[in-house]
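Re: weekly structure request thread

Next one in the queue (319 aa):
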Amino acid sequence: MRYDDNRYIDSTVIEKNQFTFKGQVDTASYCRIDVDRDAYANFILENGDIRVDLQKHNQPSGTLLNDKVAQLALAEDSVSELIARRSQEIKEQCGNDEQAFDCQMKEFIRQQRESIANKCADFYEGHWDDAFGYALLYSEFFDFIPPVQQKALLAKFGNWLKSTRTVQKISKRIEAQEKTAEGMPYTDITGTDAEGKPVALSNFMGKGNYVLMDMWASWCGPCKREIPNLAKLQNQYKDKGLTVIGIFVWDKEENLKKAMDSEGVTWPQIVDSENKSAHVYGVDGIPHIILFSPDGTILKRNLRGDTMIKTVEEIMNRK
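Done, posted below.
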């Protein structure tokens, strides 16, 4: 499968736990071999004798660019191990003091973002317009750094890389995130409610309440884990100036009522059947929870768990 258009471009037969693809390509591209959910391999399709292991996923070898992909994967593993190890150390130091843990982890992650941004730029040197530069877009190095630094990297890309669908999609997402960053006014979302009647985000704004907006779907496990937190805030502050609403995205309208019943969701919903809200707010993963001020200004984005609860509690209790 070629990543940029998600197109399956070839198939082969497995014999004695091995398989071979043969052919020639004019332009190298980032691809993926799929056998099943757990057996796959990412690699750069280019001329040469390329070897992959479906259990290691990201360790291709045999050509210059594929050796770079393998090096990148090892570097990603090293960063992940460092973050996990430091998280455990901070947890042991802070004990049950969740606020101290959150504070120290945020500072550590901030420092890591700077370091990872530098490493990402180092990886890009010499690859501003080739298939390895494209593969970097799918790496944790690129994904982990803030949009402003992603934008700076995109500005250095060559014409071919800028023309790819993935770069164009990322560029639009960054533009949407800039327009809907903290401190910016809300952008309206329209759809239907749980009864199929027209409704809009603007219906809940300008009423004197803070608005906590949750983008979610019935199939999303992390979304479901946030529902008890949203319910707690709804119950605690619904009569004190907070309105909780859901934006049902990347799902079928007929799944909403069943999901609301099974998960105990009682707050208003907007079914975004065309998934426009994710594009408008530059969201590429859910749940994505945003807090708006009574005048519609975006106060906080991407709230989760205890951090969300503490943020909302602090704001509501100082009213």
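The chain has a mean pLDDT of 93. The longest helix spans residues 64-94.
Next request, please.
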